[in-house]
Amino acid sequence: MVKDLFSVENKVVCISGSSRGLGKAIAQGFAERGAKVIISSWDREELENTRQEFNSCGLAVESVVLDVQNRADCQRFVSTALEQHGTLDVTICNAGTDIIKPAEQYAENEWDKILDINLRGYYFCAQFAAQHMLSVGCGSIIMTSSIAGSAGIPGLAPYAASKGGINQLVRTMAVEWAQRGVRVNAVAPGYIENIMADVRFDAEDPYQQRVVTFTPMGRRGTVDEFLGAYLFLASDASSYVTGEILYVDGGYHAA
Asked: Looking at the annotation, which residues are catalytic?
């Protein structure tokens, strides 16, 4: 049945960067559909508030404090799922940050922080998840990329580099693990109504008009509009899909 094809019921799903914004919407969507969800964030207080919010709505999610810049934390994140559920079906690498400024103005520590969170942390979470998935011969790893990974967007040099790196990481891991049952894909959002450090979101009208102009659908996406892509890549509906970057961008990538 089509319903079963897209089901994530009883799948164990770990999501990094899931106490707010897009990650929170993904976590809620999976939990509402019967997945066993483990959320995470470096912000302990925000993470606990999100867990309690979900629990109050009848969504029994679990939480793990996770700083993806710390390799040991990434390993513990995966280990927690295995200890509590005995398996791990889906890992979604979603933690992210950006700093918006001209390329010539980034300090070394700013570059390092963005690459550590957006690329290095993704690699380690995927690496530890894959070690289990490869041992059982199945699993899905989904990374949050961006249109910035393939398009030049001013003010995002290290962010764009990290997302381009994610795209190549996805393709390489997908090819390596394709015959061992582990699929690796990415969702690449376009402009999104989110609460990351996009200082230009409430900026002057000309910038907002530029977003509209370059997006054929003429608006930013809402966090809920991205959920379907993650559900698809986590479910059996995508069993023959690996190494793909799925753009959810209102037509930006096609323009």
From this structure: 159
